[in-house]
Structure formats: C-alpha cells, structure tokens
Amino acid sequence: MFVIRWLVDGDSGSDLIAMFGSFVFRPSSTLFDRRASKLMTTVVSTYTAYYTHLWPTFFPTVPLTPPLPTFDGRAVVYPAMRHIRDYLSWRQADCTLRSFYLCIHC
After folding, report:
1. pLDDT digits over 9-24, tens only?
2. Is residue 42 part of a domain?
3. Dihedral of the alpha carbons of 38, 43, 47, 50, in degrees to the nearest 10
4. Domain count for the chain
5. Which domain holds residue 45?
6. Strands 2-9 and 70-77
7. What is the pLDDT of residues 14-56, one digit of tens each?
C-alpha cells in the first residue's frame, strides 16, 4: 500500500511546513503499475498546477511572485492497513499539536 505525502513551504528560506497532505492508494489500484515514483510525481505536479492556478481565487489582491512556493513529495510503501492507520493517526495528532503551538504564538 502506498502513502504519498507532500510538503509545502511558502518561504524558500524557511523550515516551516505550511501544509501537509496524504494520499492513500488502495491495494487493488493499478494506476501507473503502482510505480511509487510515478505516483508521487503525478500527485505533486497536479497539486502544483492547481495551487498556482487557483491562487488568484483565494488571494485576489496578492500576486503570486518569486520566490514561488516549493513542493516536495515522498512515497512510502506500508505492508498492512494497520500501519497506515497508525501513521495517519500519528500525523493527525502531530498536526493538532503544531496548530496549538502556532496559535499560542499568534
């Protein structure tokens, strides 16, 4: 089973992760013959295209100018559904804690 993650960093000099996402492909999926690198690059490039295309819809007064957002993807193969569930539960808890931390400093 594949989990594909992407990280978005809106500031090229920052280590701050601005967004996190996961895609889980079913074990029965045959998309791109289940090649992890092809799945990862397709997801990341599609996300990039939509992100830049929809930017003016959400931020009409802020032009998208360099340094442009950068995207990174990773493909991970997990042996069983329970490992995916554990991973996604951990990510949810981690993101919640990060959100609380950011709110404290706002």
Report:
1. 444 443 333 345 777 7
2. yes
3. 80
4. 1
5. 2-78
6. antiparallel
7. 333 334 577 777 777 888 888 888 888 888 888 888 888 999 9
